[in-house]
Amino acid sequence: TAYRRQRQMCIRDSIGSVFLFLLVLFIISISTNALRPTQSKYKDCHEVNVKEMKKDGFYTLTISNKPVYSYCKNGSTLIQQRNPISGNNLNYFERTLKNYEEGFGFVEKEMFLGLKNIYELNKNNNTILQIEAIRQDDGSKIWIQFDQFIILKAD
């Protein structure tokens, strides 16, 4: 009885200590990526989807030695996305040239990859541009493809 209460308190304290340890470990892993596997450095979405055979999705590309976030689909890199129901204001894309050079937005909502990043992708032989549009009223799609899309460097 007294021994039993003492044993129950010891078990409760042990459970509390284990919970606290797991909570601290979880916080450390989130803040430092300590438990996540090292991500490969992908130079473009062709490498992600075709060479590495990863499924379509959001990926971190390394362009000019910096991380760039985009959506990869069938080896293609998403360079712009507009979504009228994302919650952004109607003037979201009214930006300065510097914004368009660097890129802006969130790939999950509305974004532009950036002229500098597109230029770097273009230098690596990513020269096909496909433009897709989806009608809001019925969901039908239209698209057009350009096989020799080139961006020249600004002087």
Summarize the structure.
This protein is of the alpha+beta class and 155 residues long. 34% of the residues lie in helices and 23% in strands. It has a three-stranded antiparallel β-sheet with strand order 1-2-3. A three-stranded antiparallel β-sheet has the order 4-6-5.
Q: Which percent band covers the strand fraction?
A: 15-25%
What class would the helix/strand composition place it in? alpha+beta
Q: What sort of overall outline do the alpha carbons produce when their principal axes are compared?
A: elongated
Query: How many strand units?
Result: 8
Spans of 5+ residues with little confidence (pLDDT < 50)?
33-38
Structure, described:
The chain has helices at residues 2-32, 45-51, 97-102, 115-123, and strands at 57-63, 66-73, 76-77, 80-81, 104-105, 111-112, 129-134, 141-146. Mean pLDDT is 82; it is low at 33-38. The protein is α+β, with helices and mostly antiparallel strands and 155 residues long. The termini are far apart. It has a three-stranded antiparallel beta sheet. A three-stranded antiparallel beta sheet has the order 4-6-5. Strands 7-8 form a two-stranded antiparallel sheet.
